[in-house]
């Protein structure tokens, strides 16, 4: 059971006084396992925070908790000033899962039209919907595929349709679960440029998971995870300096070794 903070969702005036995400003693149990153990962290607004760690360390579980789709969440988890899962957050968060959620028998534009109609219904909004759909398709560089059936696209192109859906409502917080998996280096670079544009131009907060450590260098901040715990919460520069490492990957390995030597991951982060 979640210990929700008391009181109503934040007022607009308080919007930038709170972090995008604030977790205290956050614990999630999945089946027989404790997938997240007693996490304390904040995600600052307007920046890209990378969530990195090996397969199975709990990245997707943490993202699911933040967007409010994860059961058995204990502790405190506030998102944009409201308890995670609060109905007022639905239109303020964009979430892209690892499995692209697109309709194969619709074109790219029809997929976006469908979700746009849910987000912004009514005949009066038709012009705005059309403009938002065209912009979102352009954002993910799929304009030349707008009339192609989603079922005929490559895996990477389908992932970008999902991302375009998440961009439709101009969300304040974008939660992207491994958005660059399976993409070629050029597309990966283009998508990271897009993520930086979204943060800089719209002031949006992005939480992006990856298990590819070279992507860590592209983030403003990092949450490094291992076995359901947070090993480090810092900037890439500070992590490299603190561990006297050349890369974030080397810093991560250094912290893992420290954690093993100390008999637990929490000690290493201090
Ligand atoms: N549906 C589920 N039921 C029970 N346990 C699960 C379920 N999904 C994941 N888990 C467990 O929760 C833990 C965290 O999994 P999670 O998917 O969050 O990791 P991840 O870091 O996102 O991994 P990956 O990078 O491979 O996607 C793992 O031990 C996993 O086995």
Automatic annotation (TrEMBL):
It comes from the Bacteria. The keyword Nucleotide-binding applies. Keywords: ATP-binding, Nucleotide-binding. SUPFAM superfamilies: P-loop containing nucleoside triphosphate hydrolases. Residues 21-252 form the ABC transporter domain. PANTHER family: ABC TRANSPORTER G FAMILY MEMBER 20 ISOFORM X1, ATP-BINDING CASSETTE, SUB-FAMILY H, MEMBER 1. The keyword Manganese does not apply. One of its GO terms (molecular function) is ATP binding. It comes from Streptomyces cellulosae. Transmembrane segments: none annotated. This is ABC transporter ATP-binding protein. SMART domains: AAA (SM00382).
